[in-house]
Amino acid sequence: MTRLPALPLITCDPYxxxxxxxxxxxxxxxxxxxxxxxxxxxxxxxxxxxxRFLGSGNEPALDTKDISVTPCTTAALYEGGGINLDxxxxxxxxxxxxxxxxxxxxxxxxxxxxxxxxxxxxRAELAFSDKMCYFGDEKPEIHAYPLSYPGxxxxxxxxxxxxxxxxxxxxxxxxxxYLYAAADRGEVAYDENCLTVRADASVNEDTACFxxxxxxxxxxxxxxxxxxxxxxxxxxxxNFVDAMRETMKEFDDLLNRCASLDEQIVKEAYExxxxxxxxxxxxxxxxxxxxxxLIADENGEMIFLSKENNSNGCLATVDVSYPSTPxxxxxxxxxxxxxxxxxxxxxxxxxxxxxxFAPHDIGRYPIAxxxxxGNKGTMDVGRRPAYQPPFYxxxxxxxxxxxxxxxxxxxxxxxxxxxxxxxxxxDSTSLIEQNMDIAEKWVKYLIDxxxxxxxxxxxxxxxxxxAHNINLSAKAMVGVxxxxxxxxxxxxxxxxxxxxxxxxxxxxxxxxxxxxxxxLTFDGQGWSMKYNxxxxxxxxxxxxxxxFYEFETRSYLKRINAYGLPLDNRAVYTKSDWELWTAAMxxxxxVREAIMAPVAxxxxxxxxxxxxxxxxxxxxxxxxxxxxxxxxxxLFMPFLCxxx
Length: 644
Description:
Radius of gyration: 25 Å
CATH class of one domain: Mainly Beta
CATH superfamily of one domain: putative glycoside hydrolase family protein from bacillus halodurans
Largest sheet: 8 strands, antiparallel
Strand content: 15-25%
Number of strands: 23
Distance between the termini: 29 Å
Strand order of the largest sheet: 5-6-7-8-15-12-11-10
Helix content: 25-40%
Oligomer: single chain
Number of helices: 15
Shape: globular
């Protein structure tokens, strides 16, 4: 039986995201990743007797026999009332079909079969709370929209007064749009504050199947530099009703395709890191994509935007995109270019023109209005809904941002690495060719300031400013190396930058080395995970040799606690994404598995009932902050580094 801190059920995007924060689907009510209650009630009536299979209630719960989580599906097996019931929630995050992956619809299948040799009259029912359609404690007026089409029963509900893209924030849910539910037979009705699907069947030794869909039409997904943009699937005019009908028609095919993808991911994960790594990747797959929104901009370009869940709600944060990239580089590298595109666009706007390093973000979800992090007090970047000024319209003379709160080496290195890695793993070089002028500024900044960084923030900004940061310096030399290879990809001479990166690496090793493992800072203090060096292996940069990586990864073994390897010596917390990057650098499988194993243990034992947190204490397994974040795409770094 798979045990996770929270079980993924509906995992489509940052708003349409529903989890079970318990071991069994009948232990409590489902909730949004932010912990806001979003109940879904599942009941089955057998010969007049009603049982629960999802959510709380007065009815007796079916006996849970098994729970399983694969990359695309969460399934539960029950027994009771003379039947066996198999319930599965599948979100088809298919990397070879981005139209499908960007369609916010989850497939729910119920299979009932008699287990006592008798025939039973069965009614299956799923009720979706109308809380999914609004944010706040005061319920607005909700209206139902029945829809009748051959071969599908369908209805939608939503607020009568629609306020599209009306707020931005962090731990908030959507306050506009329409919740859809559908069944291949039966009825869909809005009653008792729920949109409910019901279907009947006679159940005997042959399996009876009930097929339901849950979808959410946000109408407009992102306000992208002043332009309301729809999800990628809708770029050519497809409406949500068409998407629901198409999904029902393709129900079996989608389940088969998801099963094939599950098999592929699980097989490779097992070869890399055994059952522990299978659990980690299965817990992360849907979670990661659901922390993003894939849209088409006004020119039809692909734009992939992360949301900083349970952090500050920032949109397309560069140092959040950066750790997520391994999953996409392995399975769909064009999505990494689609992460870079909105940042490059903002970089060219007047408000950022005075800076020779990369920005931190482009707004706060779902408003791409220009960087909000480190602004000089124009807006609060806390968690509650707030108005976001159009920073992208401001002039360069405003000096809108506080330099001390920026991450110059961090974000410049991140962008250069991401741009090169996307092309290295198979995407077009067009993004590089169009933006070499910006990349040239960023690489110059890394050369000037990255070899021994000053008192700057890095992606681990929760730990505070740190001078002489050795891991940040490693990112700078990797970024310089990537720039040299970018030049080569477009037919230019990159040898100067490749040689500069090698020189930086030689100097880095001399200053970072300790017989006990590399230091935290160049003044000989502490120790830390050197996760940024994983790119040296993944991209074949040849900056440091294999002996160093064997020495460095083995040095971490004595520092591992019950639930993970601490980020560095300053605290006992870890970042699970960085821990898997560190594991990826280990050529010895036993070392790699030793670093991975505590992360899997965290999943199996943590008392924190939240969707896979990436920031938690390694001694207690309790989460610190950060829930359901896109950075868990970094858990796939071993897929890039471990060669068969």
